[in-house]
Amino acid sequence: DGVRRKRAVLSVAFRYLDTYRELLQEEGDRSNSFPKELYLCAVEQLRRYPELVEDVLKLQRWTEILNCPSDEEKETRKKQVRPLFRHFRRIDACLQPREAFRGSDEIFCRVYTPDHSYVTIRSRLSCRVGEILALVREKLQYSEEQPVLPGNLVLVAVTSAGEKAVFRPSDEAVFTTLGVNTHLFTCEPSELDSLLPLPEEIHWSPGDSKLHDMSAEEVATQLVVFDWELFSCVHEVEFLCYVFHGEQARWRPLNLELVLQRCSEVQHWVATEILQCQSLPKRVQLLRKFIKIAALCKQQQDLLSFLAVVLGLDNPAVNQLRLTWEGLPGKFKKQFQQFESIADPSRNHKSYRELISSLRPPLIPFTPLLLKDLTFLHESCKTFHGELVNFEKIDVVSRDVRGPTKACFKPAAMDTETSPSHLQTKAYVRQLQVIDNQNLLFEMSCKLEPRDT
């Protein structure tokens, strides 16, 4: 019986090591103490339980793999330096399939100064703020525009609405925490009040949407394909780290944060396209097209973009366009009311839960709601009862996380077209130009259709 129980423990350990192999290798010595300690304990038990010799040898191989990865593994982990999601707008980069980000990946990123000039730095995705500031200082030292080296620098995130968040020197992996139109600035503490959003984030110019020249089917397909790529990059452990550990997580949920950014981006994209359109008939056409896009995303079981589009149409700045909504045909009004009922949060999102329970994998869930459920479960149930693990809670969490992640694979032959119009739509969907300042959206709405006084 003792052998059976010890083998059960080792079986769980092997499954853990196999699941998180890449993450453990990336962490190096910081995370390898557990398999080493377990191996030493198992070796001590060999005299009493010689039947464990095979398991102990397997555990020894695991400690060697984690400490000294093979040349082949090292080669596969080498990745080309990439511009981070949204921070650069390069066609050749955006058309490439998305790959999972790891903390050791190197990226390019722009860091702005108070006069809106910027330096481009190359750093690890997981590096600390202090390291970023050291790289910026080095760049500024050789800049002709900065003859005097600044003193005590701070790193600040500035949103398009002018809100500022100062990072601590010990903060890590700040790149993926930035909002849709949020940029990194560096300055001295005395210059904080002078920081302003980039001009292109404050001003807007009316004009016809590129969507008028694209079919709803093509746009919806590209939304779905991109969501599959992003969601497939999310490792199961990222959900757990996001909910259980937050900022204290050993592994930053980098890819999960990018999925959440995308959800916000699509919502603001819908509002931006409609509110930039000056022609009433064309706005009505855009409303129809977005409702059709939402229907197609739902049909392809991409609930992330489906609800993001619906919530974008429900933006108060869009909702108050009375003349635009009155011009919508009754068929589309009825369809949108059905979509709104699915997005209705009442009775604990009953309509959405009924919908998702009726679907069969593969599907992409509405990730913010999945995280909300996991957070509620975590906070309402204890993980430990004394020294005992609450396995009932762990089992429920496991089912909630593994359900969507195991079902997440890109259906075959979804994105094989290579015509110029197809590539243009693909680039457009992956590089959405959005306004995320709600005050500015309201201002645009009032100019389009002034409210009755």
From TrEMBL:
Any one of the GO BP annotations: Ras protein signal transduction
GO cellular component, one term: plasma membrane
Keyword Secreted attributed: no
Keyword annotations from UniProtKB, A to Z: Guanine-nucleotide releasing factor
Domain Ras-GEF: 215-451
Record GO terms (molecular function): guanyl-nucleotide exchange factor activity
Top-rank taxon, per record: Eukaryota
InterPro entries according to UniProt: Ras-like_GEF, Ras_G-nucl-exch_fac_CS, Ras_GEF_dom_sf, RASGEF_cat_dom, RASGEF_cat_dom_sf, Ubiquitin-like_domsf
Signal peptide: none
PROSITE patterns in the cross-refs: RASGEF, RASGEF_CAT
Gene3D superfamilies, per the entry: Phosphatidylinositol 3-kinase Catalytic Subunit, Chain A, domain 1, Ras guanine-nucleotide exchange factors catalytic domain, Son of sevenless (SoS) protein Chain: S domain 1
Coiled-coil parts of chain: none
Name of the protein this chain belongs to: Rap guanine nucleotide exchange factor like 1
Species this protein is from: Tetraodon nigroviridis
Lineage: Eukaryota, Metazoa, Chordata, Craniata, Vertebrata
